[in-house]
Design goal:
This protein is mainly beta and about 100 residues long. It contains 1 helix and 6 strands. The model has no long low-confidence stretch (mean pLDDT about 80). This is (2Fe-2S)-binding protein.
Length: about 100
């Protein structure tokens, strides 16, 4: 690996790690108990459809550290997104502007 490769990987990780990343379509895990394994920025991530039909994601840690760690996961428009950043920001900002009816 050349120094340019290391710099590129570091820049990619810092630029994209804090954002929402598309994983796959939700139809890739249609049934409860189905799972999908992906590698995101060098970290293995498991996306699982739980028994309650919710889709959740977990970071797979090495054995000495213990159990898998939950990762922020959202399903929007049939697509699964994950975010490795721990800061509190949402995938899409809800549109809370509502029109108030005018009286005639």
């Amino acid at each position: 690996m050349t120094p340019d490769d290391r710099d590129f990987r570091r820049e990619m990780a810092s630029a994209y790690r804090s954002g929402w990343q598309f994983i796959d379509l939700a139809t890739a895990i249609p049934h409860a108990g189905d799972s999908l394994m992906v590698t995101l920025f060098g970290q293995p991530i498991v996306v699982v459809r739980e028994e309650d039909e919710d889709v959740r994601a977990y970071r797979c840690l090495r054995r000495p550290r213990g159990a898998p760690q939950p990762v922020r996961c959202e399903v929007r428009y049939g697509m699964v997104f994950v975010n490795l950043d721990q800061r509190d920001h949402q995938l899409f900002e809800p549109d809370i502007t509502t029109a108030t009816p005018r009286s005639a």
